[in-house]
Inverse folding.
């Protein structure tokens, strides 16, 4: 269902659209935070938030309101809200647009979020490379503070809230929430064993909620129009997947970019209606639906869901491109919605070269704590390298399955699955191409990733 | 910390062959590192944002690197003293994160994003073009010390690919003539 909206993106592209006067004028900015803080009790805010069916926008799709409800006041320790703006998942480019173009929605979301979970400080963890994003967030914080929306008594309510921008130093793994917390504390960004979960012992050992930046930026909109109304904007509200979100499309499309739509958009609409179709008028080859860790879908795949209880049953026999992009729908397709930014590959692209490129990424980014992930990611890459060189044997090709399967479920954090799942996806869906490389019928020398050379 | 370094091993001798002053530099007392007063005030302000001093470790290292261009042993000593942290902790942090330079780098750093979404839109051509123009490979610095070429993993700019980051600025939706113009400017700077 193609329904473009502009709750989050109304100020995008306006002159000084990132400043407070524009935010207040265009979307009645901060009126919602004021109403929530001055008229609602924190427990009611959480109850209301659950009705929004706002599934976390960071990749895992956990319901935001439910996550907030895990926060229990601690007798001695403070609580923290931590916003994940590490945006490092290959193919993901949405959070950055919010920070650059609509930073006040983040600050307003932080005020409501802190109040709901009993925190007085929100840390926004931004990857260091995003200098403009950090600048705009700080500007928004200072503007809000000058107006008394942040600080000792926001909107006159005796509930202090501070928002702080914190930065990393270049490590994809710091997007994983416990690694991010270690990094925030000034340590190496190595993921922690769970439990304890952040709600019990998060930042500085205190109860903490980690929300993705887009998740928190959507909070003011949800409360402004009413959380239930917000949820109903979605075409798959009945699957508890509500609201509007940012959809990204990149790779081989004519108009790559970020678009705000109601949840329930399909890949076909994203690629052809919003993305302007496949580059060079080529046929669609395959799509990585939501960041490189989500297993790819081939263009000709058809939904198989004869079981009436399956959330996909309504699309049984139809193209996967016509399934609404949702957390549960995509999980049932054997992939994941992830960050909802799709990478498009046109006919003629070499899948083995794409595999090689991604395995290089995972090899580089593994933090090295767990043996299966550290060694496995290196091994996957070395075999990918041999494939490209034409020196890979059939046994080595088969061993890729074992290596990937040995990572799954044997690691501290989900980076392991994030490496193994896409690898297995490529192996399953391009077995013929992999074998052609082993037999020497194709090689990395003529592998192409681009539709046309750059000029 | 330099007295901990072995100045007689094969590595030191190889370095001394390249640069006759190398061994001498260990016998002259090293300049301790300190932040400029302005940056030091900034660090003091940063410390107020967190419940622990340790949390200021990464921001402090960024401030030092902004000033010096890289993280030297003296920087590690400075940060560990300033934040009451063991030097080994600070060193551990420095070695974990790719953005901390453990060696001096060129005046400008050019990062070419190489990950799949950029590669699909021509990042490979951008990288080859930079290598050819500068006569260096990723990880190397031009002989005039002006430009260090590096590859980056996805920089959250896939919708405006191909892209490069030059120091703190993103350049997006690039064509090869635009890459040329950027490199021209850097070489003249
Ligand atoms: C390897 C790895 C990288 C991740 N990177 C990010 C990221 O860059 N941004 C993000 O918001 N979440 C990322 N996540 C997900 C977070 O761990 C966490 O689930 C999320 O921030 C929670 O926010 P949400 O519930 O609002 O989605 C990553 C997870 C893993 C395992
Ligand atoms: S799974 Fe990989 S990234 Fe995660 S903790 Fe283990 S080694 Fe580190
Ligand atoms: S792949 Fe280059 S910015 Fe994402």
């Amino acid at each position: 269902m193609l329904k473009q909206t502009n709750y989050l993106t109304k100020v995008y592209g306006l002159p000084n659209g990132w400043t407070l006067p524009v935010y207040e004028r265009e979307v009645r900015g901060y009126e919602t935070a004021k109403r929530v803080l001055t008229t609602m009790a924190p427990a009611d805010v959480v109850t209301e938030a659950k009705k929004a069916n706002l599934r976390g926008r960071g990749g895992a799709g956990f319901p935001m309101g439910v996550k907030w409800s895990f926060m229990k006041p601690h007798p001695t320790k403070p609580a923290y809200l931590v916003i994940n703006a590490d945006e490092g998942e290959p193919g993901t480019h949405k959070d950055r647009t919010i920070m650059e173009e609509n930073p006040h929605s983040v600050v307003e979301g932080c005020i409501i979020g802190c109040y709901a979970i009993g925190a007085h400080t929100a840390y926004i963890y931004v990857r260091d490379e995003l200098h403009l994003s950090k600048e705009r967030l700080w500007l928004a914080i200072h503007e809000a503070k000058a107006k008394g929306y942040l600080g000792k008594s926001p909107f006159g309510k005796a509930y202090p809230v501070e928002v702080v921008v914190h930065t990393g130093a270049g490590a994809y793994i710091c997007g994983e929430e416990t690694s991010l917390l270690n990094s925030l504390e000034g340590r190496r960004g190595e993921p922690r064993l769970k439990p304890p979960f952040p709600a019990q012992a998060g930042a500085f050992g205190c109860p903490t909620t980690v929300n993705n930046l887009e998740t928190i930026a959507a909070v003011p909109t949800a409360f402004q129009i009413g959380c239930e109304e917000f949820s109903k904007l979605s075409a798959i509200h009945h699957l508890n997947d509500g609201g509007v979100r940012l959809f990204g499309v990149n790779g081989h499309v004519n108009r790559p970019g970020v678009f705000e739509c109601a949840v329930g958009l399909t890949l076909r609409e994203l690629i052809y209606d919003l993305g302007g179709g496949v580059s060079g008028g080529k046929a669609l080859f395959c799509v990585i639906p939501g960041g490189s860790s989500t297993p790819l879908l081939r263009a000709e795949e058809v939904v198989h869901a004869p079981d009436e209880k399956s959330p996909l049953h309504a699309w049984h026999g139809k193209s996967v491109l016509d399934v609404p992009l949702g957390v549960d729908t995509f999980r049932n397709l054997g992939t994941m919605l992830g960050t909802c930014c799709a990478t498009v590959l046109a006919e003629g692209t070499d899948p083995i070269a794409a595999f090689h490129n991604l395995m290089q990424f995972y090899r580089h980014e593994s933090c090295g704590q767990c043996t299966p992930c550290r060694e496995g990611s290196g091994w996957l890459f070395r075999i990918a390298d041999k494939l490209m060189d034409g020196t890979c044997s059939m046994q080595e090709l088969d061993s890729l399955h074992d290596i990937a399967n040995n990572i799954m479920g044997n690691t501290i954090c989900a980076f392991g699955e994030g490496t193994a799942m896409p690898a297995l996806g490529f192996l399953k869906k391009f077995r013929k191409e992999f074998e052609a490389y082993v037999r020497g019928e194709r090689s990395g020398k003529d592998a192409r990733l681009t539709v046309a050379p750059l000029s | 910390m330099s007295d901990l370094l072995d100045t007689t091993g094969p590595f030191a001798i190889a370095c001394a062959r390249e640069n006759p002053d190398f061994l001498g530099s260990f016998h002259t007392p090293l300049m301790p590192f300190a932040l400029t007063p302005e940056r030091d005030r900034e660090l003091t302000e940063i410390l107020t944002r967190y419940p622990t001093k340790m949390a200021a470790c990464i921001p402090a290292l960024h401030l030092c690197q902004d000033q010096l261009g890289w993280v030297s042993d003296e920087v590690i000593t400075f940060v560990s003293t300033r934040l009451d942290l063991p030097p080994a902790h600070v060193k551990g942090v420095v070695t974990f994160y790719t953005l901390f330079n453990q060696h001096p780098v060129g005046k400008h750093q050019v990062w070419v994003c190489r990950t799949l979404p950029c590669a699909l839109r021509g990042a490979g051509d951008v990288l080859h073009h930079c290598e050819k123009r500068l006569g260096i490979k990723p990880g190397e610095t031009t002989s005039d010390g002006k430009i260090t070429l590096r590859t980056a993993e996805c920089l959250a700019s896939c919708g405006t690919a191909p892209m490069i980051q030059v120091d703190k600025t993103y350049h997006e939706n690039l064509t090869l003539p635009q890459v040329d113009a950027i490199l021209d400017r850097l070489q003249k700077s």
